[in-house]
Design a protein that fits this description.
9 helices; 62% helix; four-stranded mixed beta sheet; 4 strands; alpha+beta; 2 domains; Glutaredoxin; single chain
Length: 219
C-alpha cells in the first residue's frame, strides 16, 4: 500500500483504481462529497477502459442485491465487521457475481477505506456521474402505484422538455404516498403526492385551530 495520504484528488483516486493501491481517506469529509468523488473517479476509469456500460450494470445488480439481502446490508453497514472482513466479503461477492474488474477493485477500495457504509450514496452518484458525462440527467420517481409504460414515457418526455436533456428515470412504488408522485431531478424535488397535500392541509387546519384558540382566550 505504501502511501499515507490524508486527502485525495480525483487524479489520485483514478491512479489508485488503475494501480490497485488503496488510499486512506480523511474522516471529516462528508459522505455526499466523498461519494461523488469516488463515483466520478470510477466512471472516468471505466470510460477510459471502454467498460462503462458493464460497470453500470454491475452497480444496478449490486443495488438489487442490497434490496433483498439483509445479510449483505449488514456486511456493508455494520461497524462490527472490520476492514479485512469487508475487503474479503467484497472480493468474494464480486467473484460470485462476476463483476467487472473495475467494479471489484472499486468495492474493495471502499472496504479498505471504511467507506462501504455509504454504498447507497455511491451507487446513486455513479449513475449521476455517468449521466453527466453523457449529457443526460437521472430522475427518481416515487409513485403511489405502478406506472404504465405510457405514463413512464409521458413523464420522460415532460422531464426531457423541462431539462433540455435526455432523462433516465428510476421508478419506485411507495404506497404510503396514497396517490400522486414525488419526482426528484438532481437537487430539485416536486412533491405532488396526496400524502404531502394531506400534511399541508393538516398543518393549515392545526394552525387555524391554534389561532382560533388564542383569539377565544384573548376575548
Amino acid at each position: 500500500m505504501g502511501r499515507s495520504l490524508c486527502y485525495f484528488t480525483g487524479q489520485n483516486l483514478r491512479e489508485s483504481l488503475t494501480n490497485k493501491e488503496f488510499i486512506p481517506v480523511a474522516s471529516h469529509q462528508t459522505s455526499g462529497a466523498a461519494a461523488r468523488r469516488y463515483a466520478t473517479a470510477l466512471v472516468e476509469t471505466a470510460l477510459e477502459s471502454k467498460n462503462l456500460d458493464a460497470v453500470l450494470t454491475d452497480f444496478a445488480d449490486l443495488e438489487a442485491m442490497l434490496g433483498v439481502s439483509p445479510d449483505l446490508q449488514r456486511a456493508v453497514t455494520s461497524p462490527l465487521f472490520d476492514r479485512n472482513e469487508q475487503v474479503a466479503a467484497m472480493n468474494a461477492l464480486a467473484d460470485k457475481a462476476k463483476f467487472q474488474k473495475e467494479t471489484k477493485h472499486f468495492l474493495m477500495l471502499l472496504a479498505q477505506n471504511r467507506r462501504l457504509s455509504m454504498i447507497s450514496a455511491v451507487i446513486a452518484a455513479v449513475r449521476d456521474a455517468a449521466a453527466d458525462l453523457r449529457g443526460e440527467v437521472n430522475a427518481t420517481v416515487q409513485s403511489a402505484s405502478k406506472l404504465s409504460g405510457a405514463q413512464e414515457k409521458a413523464l420522460v418526455d415532460a422531464l426531457s422538455k423541462t431539462t433540455g436533456k435526455s432523462v433516465n428515470i428510476k421508478v419506485e412504488v411507495r404506497e404510503d404516498l396514497i396517490g400522486g408522485m414525488v419526482v426528484t431531478v438532481g437537487s430539485k424535488m416536486i412533491d405532488d403526492s396526496v400524502k404531502r397535500k394531506l400534511e399541508r392541509l393538516e398543518r393549515a387546519l392545526t394552525g387555524g385551530a391554534n389561532q382560533n384558540t388564542q383569539i377565544d382566550k384573548a376575548s
